[in-house]
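**Polypeptide and fold**
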Amino acid sequence: MARITIVSAGHLATCPRMLKAADALSGIGYDVRVVSPLLSDRLATIDRALHARRIWRWFPVPLGRAQAPMRWLLSGSRVKVARRVAAALGNLRPHRVAIYAYSRGYKELTNAILQERSDLIYAGTNGAITAALDAAARAGVPCGIDFEDFHCGELTAAGDGHLINSLAGAVMQDASQRAAFVTAAGEAVARACAERFGREPIVINNVFSLPAPPRRRTRTGPLRLYWFSQTIGQGRGIEDVIDAAGWVGLPIELHLRGVPVPGYIEQLRTQAAAASPLLTLAVHQPTDPDAMIGSCDAFDAGLGVEPGSSENNRLVLSNKTLTYPLAGLALVLTETPGQQPLADTLDGDAIVYGAGNTRALADGLRRWARDRPTLERARSAAWEAARTRWHWEYPSERDRLLATIRSFV
């Protein structure tokens, strides 16, 4: 059976798309090896637990300060120098400079990929893109690339944002030309890639395996809202939810899961005390990625409140937003191009509002808080959308990826 190498520039715990690809390919008999960095002791512990439950092989590459201090120092110096050169040269910079300026672990990941023979390489996350392409070229094998995000639009123009977006654009353009195939996480991301780079990726959404139907129960007490991500920080729409809760005028609980940016939770508590005195704010520790659907069970509604703070934020249909319906949570969504395909399948049984329109959000939350049958109808609609369309086993998701890879090995 063919040997396939899956590459991520982030931890296994933070890259569910590559994790799902490895699981699916090993599940049908391919010899799968996953290459990923070790950057954080906390995430490395989760990675080891994830790998222990799987049959594919794992090749971790120590890159963090605690795991490989000299490699961390050298790679950091390399990327800083390359970014200074890239900024000075502007549009005249060579592509090799862009690679080193964009991907801190480019050299180390390339070498790790080439440690074993591969018949095909498939890579996702921004820093792994060129490493995989160059390793595949040296090995003489096809390489597929995944654009989980519209990387050239991830940042605003503030600070180094314009430079990093520009570097990402050069890397994505190169990948669009060189890759054997390209996938993207959602219709809006795929359209944006086609318009900018002249090649339309294959859409593979951020969906997960369909679980057993959620338990149906009558819940009492305050409306319980839930949001999760790797990092809890600004620019994610959380502030609008707090302001809207103040307009509702009823007790509401807001539950956040992730690692907070230092000082950010204190800012939210100060905001809540001033604007939403009836709001209870709770912060939860990150959990095992394999348990994310189950972790939603205690809540009523999931928040996909992307504010459109960057081009990518407008285009993304995120992991969390597609996790909520699998758990049977009602959905709160901002009107963005990325989230529109999901909103279209909910038959109006969701709160869909324009980012920043806290009055409209408050009206929807008040309706759910006062009328539990309406909330339960929204929960049922979300589960039905997940069951009939938004899950990994749906033909145009896992099977589309497997068919694409089969055509090259």
